[in-house]
Amino acid sequence: MTITSRVWKLGADVDTDALAPGAYMKNSINVIAQHCLEALRPDFATAVKPGDVVVAGSNFGIGSSREEASGTLVHLGIRAVIAPSFSGLFFRNAFNLGLLLLTCPEAERLQEGDLVTLVSKGVQCSDGTILYCEPIPDFLMAMIHARGLMNVLKQRSLGKLHE
Amino acid sequence: MTLISSSIKTPQTLAQKIIARAAGHPQVAVGEIVTCQVDLAMFHDSSGPRRLKPMLDELNAKIWDPSKVVLVIDHYVPAHDNDAKHIVQIARETAREWRLPNVIDSEGICHVVLPERGHLHPGMFCVGGDSHSPTGGAFGTYMFGIGATEMLAVVVTGEIWVQVPRTMRMIWNGQLEAGVCAKDMMLHMIARFGMNGGKYQAVEFAGDAVMALSMQERMTLSNMSAEMGAQAGLIGADETTCSYLRSMGVPNESLQHAHTWQTDVGADCENFYFDASTLSPQVAAPHSPANTRAVGDYANVALNIAYIGACTGAKLDDLRAAAKVMRGHHVAKGVRLIVAPASARDQAQAEREGVMQILRDAGAQVLPNSCGACAGYGATFEDEATVISSTARNFKGRMGPASVQVYLASPMTVAASALRGCISDVRELL
User: Fold this and answer.
1) Global pTM?
2) What stretches of B314-424 adopt beta strand conformation (E)?
3) N or C: where does chain A have the smaller number of CB atoms within 10 Å of the terminal CB?
4) Pick from B33, B150, B152: which is nearest to A92 by CB?
5) Cis omega (within 30 of 0) on the bond before B287?
6) In A19-133, at which residue ranges do the beta strands (DSSP E only) sit?
C-alpha cells in the first residue's frame, strides 16, 4: 500500500527546545506535544495530521538530550523527518522512540504542502522524482519496525541490542 | 601472500583506545559499530527516575549495577511549583527503592558534582542523561549524553552501542591574553565549525594552551563540545588531571595508568591549529552559540541582566574569574547581576576565598546551586530582557519568552559587561 504524506517545511538548525519547550518539560508528552514548534510554527501542533512528514534544513534536532523532542513528533503522528543532516544525539533518540529520520542531501527541494511517498531508496515526489536518502543500518530499522527500543527490549529479552 | 599480524597495533586515538577497552577488543576501527560495557551511568531528576521507573517496571527488570549509577537532583530544585516538587519526590523515592548508593541531592549541577565526588577517571566509558555529558571528557573519560529510553537500556543491560568516531583534534598553541578564557576558545571553535560541525564524532583538545588550563577551564571546553555537535570532547590526562582527581578523593591506584590515556603519535586524526595569543574575548549573539564574533563587534549592546550560572559558567574558577573583574566595583544602574554557583562545594570554597563577598558587594543576587535559568525548566527571564550569560545555549525561547535576547560570553566578559551596563571588552578593565 502506498501512503502519501504531506510536507511541513522548516528551516535549518531546528533545536530540541523548539520541539519540546523547556517550560512544559514537567508535563506529560501529550501536553508538551501541543507546544511542539510553537516558537517557529504556531499552527503546527494543531494543524498537523498523522502520516505527515517534516522536511527541514541541516542540523535538525541540535541541543538537548531530551528525547521528548522526538516524542512530540511521534505523539503527533509524524511519519518521518527528512533533512540533509541531524544532531547525532537527536538521531539516536528518534530511532529509540520509533521515529524514522531520513538523511536526504536534497531535502531542500521539497516544498511546503508537497505530497511525497517514502520508497526504499528515498523520497518520491509527486512528479515521480526520487530524492536519494542515506541507507539506515538494519538494527536501527528494526527499532522503527518495532516502534521503538522499549519494544525491542521486550522482544529480545535483553539481548545484544544491535545484533 | 599477506601476513599481517593482529598483534601489531596501528596508532589509536584516545577515543578509539577507550572504546576498544570498553568493547573488549584489542583495537577498533573508525566507523565500526561496537557494543561497550558502561563503567558509569549518570542521570538527573528530569531525565532519570520519572522517565526510567515506569519503563523499568514495565519490563519487570532491575538495575544492572546500582554501584555504577549516579543520580543527581539538580534540574527541578529548588522546586518552584507542585509539578516540580512531584518530580523531585519521584527521584528521591525511586533512589530509595533502587537502593542507589550514589545520590547527590540539591548540591550542584551533575556535570560539576560528578568529578567533584571522584566518580570519573581517565579511560572510563560513561553515559549521562544530559546533553552536556561530554564535560566528563576533560578527565580523559569517554562520556556522552543519551535520552531516557536509551538510558533505560543501559541501566538494564549495562551496555550500549557506539559507532567508533573519527577524531577532530583542536590544537591550541601560544598563551591566552589576560581576560581571555576557555569559554572564548570554545565559542570561537563553535563559530568556525558550526553547531553540528562535530558531526557526532570525537573532538579532542590539545596543545600547550589547552594543557595550561586549569581542570575546570578544561571542563568548559569539553562541556560545550555538545554545542559543536560532537559525541565526546576529550582531553588527554596529565598531572593537572591527576592532581585534581587526587584532591577529590580518587585513590592513587585508579590513577596509576592515567598517563596512558592519550592519543598515540601517528594516530589518524583531523588536526586543526589555533593561536591562543591572538584570540579576543568572544560573544555569541541571539539565538545560536555559533553566532559568535569578537566582543568588539557587539560593543555597546545595553543589558538588563548579567547571569553567571550553569555547569558551563559558574564553577569555582568561573566565580574567581568574575570576582577578579568585579573586585571593588558595583554593577551599572539598571543591570541585575545573578550568580548561581554550579556546586555547593565550589560556592563554599568561593566563600572562604572572599570571592562570593566580592560578587555580593558588586550587587549579585545569589541563587541556589542548580541548573536554574539555563535549563529553562523553572524561573526564567522576563519578556524583552537583554541578557549576557556565561551559560552554553542561547536558543530562542530557551531561557524565557521568545522575546528574550541572550548573548553568551565568558564569566569575565559577563562581569565586565555588568559593570558597564553594556557588552564590554574585559581587557579594558584589567
Assistant:
1) 0.96
2) 336-340, 365-366, 386-389, 405-408
3) N
4) B150
5) yes
6) 53-55, 80-83, 100-103, 115-119, 122-124, 130-132
